[in-house]
Amino acid sequence: MDFVAFEHDRPFVIEALRRGELDYLEPVSEAAEADLFRHLISRDILTRLAEKYPTPRKKEEVPIWLYLASQISLKLHDASYHAFPYVLRCGGLITALGPAVGRKAVHPETADVTLSCEGFNDKNTNGRQTPCDQDFLRKFARDTKADRLHAWFNREVPRTLRSLKLLDAEGLFVGDASYLFVPDNENYEDSVKLLFDEHNHPVDSRKVDRNDKRYQWRRCYKVVSLIHVNRNLDLFLTVAARVVPGNRHECPILYELVDGFVKAVDRGWMKVLMVDRGLIDGANIGRLKTDCQIDTIVPLKKNMDAYRDVMGLTRLRDFQWEPYQQPYATRRDQKDRPKHPTIVKRELARQKTLAEKKGLPPPQPLPQPQTLLGMARGVASWTDCSVPLTVVINREVDRDGKIDDWVLATTSPTFSAEQVRSNYTLRTAIEERHRQYKCFWDLASMPSRKFSLVVNQVLFVLLAYTLLQGHLFLRQRQQMNPRTRGRILQLLNPTLQVVAVYYQQRFCLLSLGEFGTILLDLEEEARARLRPKMKQIQRDVCHLLQNARSP
Predict the structure, then answer these.
(1) Which helix (H) or strand (E) holds 72?
(2) What is the pLDDT of residues 60-102, one digit of tens each?
(3) Which residue, of 59, 179, 279, 318, is most buried by count of CB atoms within 10 Å of its CB?
(4) Which of 272, 202, 194 is nearest to 231 (CA)?
């Protein structure tokens, strides 16, 4: 069966219904998932992704677009392959695909309303309750080569996002790596055991006391990702990723992902790349500037010559500092941020009142943390980098007057100190998104120990997350993007039962009141035309599963 897409055309379908003409109708829940898949279908996203998918099969018995849609649906519901029939019943995928793929039916043994699907081949003798078997999804994912799946994701996902006009004009990208911990089972292909501290940071086993309980051996993989963000942090799109053993260094992998992104969508889309100290590579940073006009922002290590040189400049009398206003603290544990002036004023007034009642002298205002920025341009003491650097010294002064200096470097000759600092602040936002991946999207919940299925789990979770982010952004609901998966689905859960009416490859959604009013207002001729069609639909619902499997 070919891919059948239905166009949403409310006036056309209502006018046909008033003439007593329709092809099919069914009650549906207007769920967020159905809206997401309708959006993907209407913009041809699934078909475009399917065209270049590295299929492991010589013969295509089930369309690849259905495989992709099913994988995305499973990740949205945080479900295993065996739960696929239940996901179809409670989700919105079948609703979005329309009656050509699946429709509701009455089970002959239990009289329960279930799904009946036509399927895509003639191999089944029993009535189908899913468009494809859950075991097909698992085997198809298992047989897809990991390197080909990486190449497909890193090439087609950026092109898809570009076609949806989701790539922000400011061109802000973040590069990072994160560990994925799995059970201590040596059968996890290409996994390694490393020693981690209590903060899940790897440590050298030769430099620490192995008997210290703070250090634990853990089996892991590493995910290196390239992420596109906007200034408001309400858009967070993974445009490239690669899963590797946990002991591989992420630095060369990230710059390969950057090169692949530029090759996939052309130059000009990525303008600023922000990385942390673990991704310092002077040669690649200089090459990105000269070849691709990409400016990189990276913090310098204290043992680097460039760091020591610019810190020496701060001791000069004429070195200038400028204040930088950090975001105000919103929680009590944010002691490194200043409090809002209104809160400071209110607290000082309260302390004065208490002092007066106790006969004590009025208290002095408490000092607030502050940040000072200093800048040096044209720094050339980083010999590995072929272009001069703009360096920003960040001086953090806490409430006790203690000073902590750290340095940011960028290849941009025009960024101001405030721009460099505010841009790099966006990089820390990925820590919260990594927490969401792992805690709420089960990124590390591996369905198998085979490496191809490990890669499939990671990449399709990132794909589902990215497509949902883009969908909400295009629907003008980007304020929901920072929320967790569970909270988003709770807020978007169905609140209205509607009737889906289909006619000539078009459909519309009507509330029960609207549908009833249209039926009551029909002319007698239209009613006579509609009555046999409704009876036929009722007979189909009752007899679709002639030879159903036992429930």
Answers:
(1) helix 64-76
(2) 888 999 999 999 988 888 888 888 887 887 777 877 777 777 7
(3) 279
(4) 272
